[in-house]
Design goal:
Helix content is 33%, strand content 23%. It has helices at residues 24-34, 51-57, 65-69, 86-95, 110-123, 137-148, 167-171, 185-188, 191-201, 299-314, 322-339, and strands at 15-20, 39-45, 60-62, 76-79, 99-102, 127-129, 154-162, 204-212, 223-230, 235-241, 251-256, 259-264, 267-271. Strand 12 (259-264) and strand 13 (267-271) form a beta hairpin.
Amino acid sequence: MQSEIVRTPESKAVLGIGIIGFGSVARIHLDAINLCKDATVVAVCSTRKSEDTVSTSRPIWHPDFHQLLQQSNVDVVAICSPSGLHVEHARAALIAGKHVVVEKPLALDLREAIELVELAKARGLMLASIVQMRFEEQNSQIKAMIAAGILGKPILAEVLIPWYRDQSYYDAAAWRGTVDGDGGVLLNQALHHVDLLCWFFGKISDVVGFTATLTHDIQAEDTAVASMKFTNGALGVVAATTSAFPGTSARLSLLFDAGRCVISGQEIIEWTFPNVAVPTSVHDHSNSGASDPSRIGVSGHRAQWENIIHSLRRGSETAVTGQDALDTLSAILRCKDFAS
């Protein structure tokens, strides 16, 4: 039987957040949390002390993540370390009695991801994985329309991620581009769009795919394609690469029997559903990770963190649970297994 999530005491006005790892994605989390009124970053673990972190939110800096987990005012731990360390850090945080938020991916191994979900349930702790694209306004509206049947029967979903990372991006950190530390383009760059497909069209029943390393000196793949079948009968296609100079916005096409929606970056560029108003979309062309992973913006992270904080206050599940992360991870790993 699943334990209820431990509710944060009402008497505690502000939740204390600890961040493990402080690279570019952690700075996005820091900015997002600083915009939330009921939480603050009280601790950061990094091998290098960052002056901008200290000046922004005055957290205590720790060189060892075990020290951060011993800090009594840390209620929630945000895992922003390299992907291959997510399981180790998340497991330790859960054992220490902390709620856990993991930057994607939840894990690189499905069995380990399942163990994390089960550990969180057994201890009555929150385990969430960051999939900020679900919280972008246009995506939330499209999801609601699909659930209500307004857009018709799902037919086909297509994702193209023509991104670019030069060799220096991979060389900048020893874990990047490795199988055990990074996981490759599907687990690193394409995960958010695969997650949207699972969210929009439902569970995936079958996957086939191919991967290749075409332009970089790395272990993992920099290019991948996958075809999938959803349990509702719809089909999907994903094509992703970090080798497409100079890098352009990802494009998501959703085809229904009543019309078509195409999203480029965060902007809806095609909407053919008769008598259905176009959802509100974000017209921010700078908010893209096509060629620079640090330019993904903060709005989606802020919205997800606000949901996490609100859920902890109520002792309820977050909008995106550990099980949701498992479904997406399973689809990606099945593609990689097929390709190997």
